[in-house]
Amino acid sequence: MFTFKRLSVALVFSASVAISGCAGNKPSMSQEEFSAAMAQSSMSVDSLLEKGNQEEAVKVLGDLAKRNPGRKEPWIRMAKVHFDAENYAQAIVAAEEALQRDGTDRSAKSIRAVAGLRVAAQSLTDLRGDVELKGDARSDAVGLAKVMRDTLGEDVLVPPGEEKKKKAIPVARPKPVAATTPKKASAAADTAPAASGANPFSLLK
Predict the structure, then answer these.
(1) Where are the stretches annotated Disordered (predicted)?
(2) By CB atoms within 10 Å of each CB, which of 74, 82, 91, 131 scores lowest?
């Protein structure tokens, strides 16, 4: 199960490996030397894992990472070892170390993403234990939100920037329909009719 203690231990271990790697005077291996050392370490790790000795397996990979601080491979294998053991916090830390050396590595990205989801799922499961669930999805969600709001505060759940954006969005109002103006009457209609007694042929004279 994910705990902050495990995360702290993982961070301390990662920092110690990085410091040791920087402080070491031994130069990094060549590509051929590293490939051979990685293959040998992988065999040792597989053998140790079969015996259930995860800590020793991680130590083997940590030693290889110290001797080759610029290489991502030991960290990726370490992340997989932690992930398979359901130590998701350590898996995330190891995956981050690999991504610092190669930000495009898909294996490290996948481990980090899935491990993060597992941690989030475990956290929600723990929170569900503090909420009186009624079986309805909406009521459960409201209950969980209330617990998180009481614990973390409103600003964490709804960042102030998002709230301002919602308020700043103008409400669309329908445009008023312009009143239609009656067409002007024709000049013939506006002209007053001739007197009933007038000669209708007088204009032709």
Answers:
(1) 158-205
(2) 131
